[in-house]
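seq:
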Amino acid sequence: MVPGACRRCNARLTAFLRILKDVHLKNLTLRGFKSFASATTLRLEPGITCVVGPNGSGKSNVVDALAWVMGEQGAKTLRGGQMADIIFAGTSSRAPLGRAQVDLTIDNTDRALPIDYSEVTISRTLFRGGGSEYAINGTPARLLDVQELLSDTGMGRQMHVIVGQGQLDQILSSTPEERRGFIEEAAGVLKHRRRKERALRKLEQMDQNLVRVLDLTQEIHRQLGPLARQAATARRAQSIQARVRDAKARLIADEIVDLRDRLNAHDESDQVRTQKTQELRVHARELTESIQLCEQREREADPRLTEANTAWRDLTAIGESLRATVLMARDKIASLDRPLDAPSGDDPDELDRRADEASAEDAELLRTVEECRRRLQEAISAREEAEQRDEEAHGTLSGITRQIADRREKIARLTGDVESARSRLVAAEAEENRAEELVRAARKRQEEAEKALRKTPAPDGEGSEDTAARNHSQASVKRDEARSQVDALVAREREARAERARWESRRDTLAEQLAPDDATSTLAGGGGGAWGGDDLGTVPEALTIEPGWEDAIAAALFPLADAAIVDGTANGIDCLRHAREHQQGQMRMMRAGDGDGNNEVEPQPRGPLPSGARWALDVITHAHSVSRSVTKLLESVVVCRDLDEVQDLLEHPDVRTVVTSNGDVVTGESLIGSGHSTSSVLSVRAQYEQAVEGARHALDDEQKASEQLVHANKVLDQAIRAANEALKALRAQDSQRAKLAEAYARAQSAAKAAQAETQRCEATARKVAEHVQWARSQVDTADERLSTSKDMEPAPDAEPAQQRAGEAARIAREAREHETATRLELRTNEERSRQSGGRARALRQAAARSREERSRYAQREDQRRRKLLIAQRVAEQAQYGVDVAARIVEHWEHLRAEAESLRQQSSHERIELRAALDAVNAEIAEITGLAHQDEIARAQTMMRLEQATARSMEELSLEADQLIEEFGPHNLVPDFSGEGDPTAFSRPEQEKALAAAERDLAKLGRVNPLALEEHEALSKRHEFLVSQVNDLKSSKADLLHIIDDVDRLVEDAFTTAFNDTREQFAHTFEVLFPNGEGNLTLTDPDSMLTTGIEIEARPAGKKVKRLSLLSGGERSLAALAFLIAIFKARPSPFYVMDEVEAALDDVNLTRLLEIFRELQEESQLIVITHQKRTMEIADALYGVTMRDGVTTVVSQRLADA
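struct:
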């Protein structure tokens, strides 16, 4: 890479680091997240913040909260089985919560995040029902919005900034391709990969769409042939339909004329019938009046008849009701005349006497129950006393039995101890013999191992020289030099390409500015040649002006500074005519000459000018074609630098116009200028020519760089192949040395193992001898104790105690049986007492019920006698009413007969008048029927006329009058064959012509009336689909180009990030391993898109470089160095370290803390730790503790403490 490019990259990286240093996390608030049941806020300081606390207190939950709020979607990553596990699950004293919420506030004062806020708060809420919400500064957002907000800052869902407890193991166990993923995440390559994935998905969809469109295009092309044939048939049908339409029109017009004549005839007959109908209706009205008089008399007689009928019916109903009352009263008297039955049952006094006897018996039984209870209490006391004596006797017997058993057990135990001691002694003596055999065998194996070790050759020392390592080192140096040369040439080519693109962009922009805004551009673009003249270019192309005077010359030539050049006045006039015919804008043209080839103008003598001023013709060089025109326009024109010289120059006798370098034009009559400077067309032309020259030089530089890059790539390929061959040779040599070292180490290990085994066997033999002595002393001690125990006094006799215990048990058993008999007698007497009391109560209740029943019988008998008297009085009154009603009914029956006679006389007269009226109405109906039939015929004629008129509108789209006027019988009929003259209308001839046309139309078969339109529409659709296919192919090419661009971006970004990471890894490794050497290499340098990354680590004093050959602690430190190198190469605003130094000793911890201080200068650190020395470098300290399953936090700012 060239030095200038390095400086630009360093400047951009420094600016980015300065922005990231100002961005830091301010607050982290947890509500219901895991063990944080209550709202807990951690105010995070720039620098190092340590979170400390005992194991299981919830420190790592802070790390999980940071990852979760920034978009982590994996429940396993958050150490849970499912996402709902992050919600506080409750404790014995606190109920579970329904949601978890985390708020993260980021300081965005320098607008590093692409959002217009000085502080950005990202919130995430998860509900137990499964719903999840995101918010940015309180505004609802999507997960994609959060990811895009954090994508270019090193923060986001990849979470490479969070180094968990298993992160180092993941790096150590990862493949080279997986290690590449760490650098890609830090370099922001994943967003380009997502862009490529989206492009690939669109490409796949586009291929599917292209296949569908091609299928549809082929299908439409297949349909066009049959549809074209249908369209030809439709054209033939149109000509036949014209003949059918003419014949139909003439027949319908003739039919309408005939129907109108029939309607006129119907109107004349209607007038005669109308006059006769009026006479009959007058006579009918007279008869109707007579009928109405008869009906009036009937209506007057109807009320009297109705009144008589109503009275007769009412009185008849009253009489019937009274007779029914008499019958009901007589039936009631018959039912009440018999007395009620007297009640039966025992006498109440007898029942009371029997209840008293039962009460006396119950009292006697109660006294017996009390006596039984007294005797039961005496039996219980006797039983308790007997049981106590039985328990004392059995206790004495148990004590004597225990003494006898203890003595027997002690003797048996001592005997067992003697036997055990003797067994241990036998086993110890056998073990002593085996130990001696093992010592002899171990000494023999030691001698054999030492003999084998002396025969095995020792490996070379670490400091010995080897050709393969030297060759590999030299090849690696050459490869790195070749790669550096390629990188420098790639950067040079990239800069040359960018320079060329800059000059070409400027050239194209200036070319657009050079195009005139009016119709002159059509001439400048070659339009003149199209109108018959030669294309001579434009004025700016024909002039060459000294630098600095372009604006002055453009102002002097205005408005012809960017005019087109035409060959003669005649061609210019033709151009003006063409512009006027096509309504184009203004055209500005400069004439090239008169066509005689003499364009030169003799220069006029000019006097000297003051210093700083020059004649306009002296600062330009013009083409021969415009020499005459330019000389005439600029003659007597002077250019100067500023306005201070203008007045003096105007006084010069040969000066007509003065123009300043800024474009101000001053004459003796006018002044033209502007308050702000603008670039003239000639100035733009000069810049355009400069841009063309710059683009040409940049293209030459790019081609040279490309040629050198091709050569350098060949050299690099050779160097890489040589380095790979050297690496293979080195690995083969390392493998051979490893085998020798392994064999020597195996022999040496066997010798040491044999020596150690001999020492162990000898030590074991000594211990076994000591154990034999101890076992013999134990046997002697056990024999002595057994002899002493056998000399003790004999055990006491248990026979008397057993007899006393048996007698006490018999007495206690008899006392319990007596108690049981007494209890049974008590229960029997109590049951008899309850039965006697119940019988007495039942007898008294039966006596009370008998007395109540006798009282109710007396009351019912009294009520029966009163109801009998009332029924007898009702029967007498009802019989009197029946007699009176019979006399009144007879009177109203006579009045009803008289009214009915008068009504029948008036009805007979009305019937005779109605018959006469019916005869008149029948005659009127007959006339009306004839009129109706005539009306039906007229209506049918009218309907046929309307149908004909409707057919005229529906089939011919003509009004009836227009149809008659154009196609009526009075018009001549044309000959459609075109061979004869028009003839008079003949309906039969027209019907034959219509039938013939319809037969011709039927011969065509089924005709698609829309075939013409469908064929035209389908043709247009086919053309449209063909254009769509071309567009899809063009879009596919664009997508492939985008994919190539993305691959190039990914390759450039990864290459730069890898180089930076490799440089930082060397520095970090040297800090963690003083005097050590660390390097990152590519597994496939030829493919930067897929190559993996190998870690080479050589601690001080060792030759090995592979991670697999390092110790566990060294491998962990190498992995940590790799991570920190990524952090330093692509810094992030913050990093989270979760107990990464837990397994380090003091020396390595000191080195790691030094790395932390370096990271602190660029980023904010949040460290989960147990180490006191790590806490000492912290700027803020948070103590985390757990009480009753709930995490609480205490903070302290150490910088202020």
